[in-house]
User: Fold this.
Amino acid sequence: MNKGGQMARFESITGKYVNIEVQGIEYRVYFEESGQGIPLLCQHTAGAESLQWRHIMNDQEVTSRFRVIAADLPYHGKSLPPESVEWWKQEYRLTKSFFIDFLLELSHALGLEAPVFLGSSMGGHLALDLALERPEEFRAVIGLESAEYTPGFDIIWWDHPRISGQLKSANLYEATSPYSPENYRREVGWVYSQSAPPVFRGDLYYYSVEHNVTHKLDQIDTSRVAVYILCGEYDIASTPEQGRQAASQIKGAKFIEMKKLGHFPATENYEMCKGYLMPILTEIAGA
Amino acid sequence: MAVIFLDSNKVEQLRNTLNNDAEFKLAARLMSEDVLLEVGDSSCIVRVREGVVTEIKLAPGSDDHWSFSIKATAESWDKLLQPSPPPFFTGLNAGMIRGNLQIMGNLEVAFAYYWAMNRMLDIMRQLQNK
Assistant:
């Protein structure tokens, strides 16, 4: 009981900072975790942060078997830009090389043994890049809203001095499904209104320019790393058709279309997303 | 069925609803712009002054100025205004991605007040299905 006589409700999520070196530069990285068991390393979407994973981190069905971890990428959330770089003189851009190296350095720093990677949107794209380029690091990758290539989203209006974060908020709200609960749809928009001005567009450089696995997916060996792709029916950026097309080129990969879900399944309607995700996590845990 | 913003019997209801909607008032509070809404060859102009919709003018003439336009076919507007719209019709950007809707004119103004415009679409959807 607190002084007011009311019961305070704590969550099982804990947050910490870790200092890691990526490509020769030290970054102070914020991450959260919850649970014990198989490491489940979660990657947030472009222009967002780790709090997108709060639902799965508070789900005891998952955390009883998985150590769920989610970090804020440098420049996002509580992970500030690096102290040793004059970042204010450069345009922020997330590259594929940095994205992969960051995830691996973080995984190694936390001592993760054969983690499962779970990424959404640009994290979903990264799932395919990791399976292709670093299959030895993960037991499985789960891509939410993955696709081979999604050009056209790296536009100036996301980072324009006369346009506020309201554009991102309203725009990403409509990337959710009309069937998802309104409060969680609004939460998606709220998160997108929070990032520093150049971050969303800078992340889309990876999402829309650098990530391109066209004609490469048949090189993925699912005997080394299992691959799952799940796409929401209402996704307007990485559509179910694109996810299905990507999965069809990876021998042994599994594809699921998530009905009545949009681009942010784990955030906009976790309970519905869980219905698709839990059998996969169970399969991985039993493998 | 005519889209609500071109129905002479309903545009006043639309104007009043927008002016009494807490979210639209918040999103449009700094907006003083004229917006052309087009359904094929038919159109209207929504005039907004400091967040208040002062007029919805049907069949505007060539001397009516506007900042930006939102254009779609009758078929696309029908999908945009369904209670639970299908994929690619949930909002303005969703409509633009597959070319089902176009925003033209001063895009800087359009994107500055994007939230207000999407809320206007929500309100139109609600009234269209009442």
About this structure: The CA atoms of residues 184 and 268 of chain A lie 5 Å apart. The two ends of chain A are 43 Å apart (CA to CA).
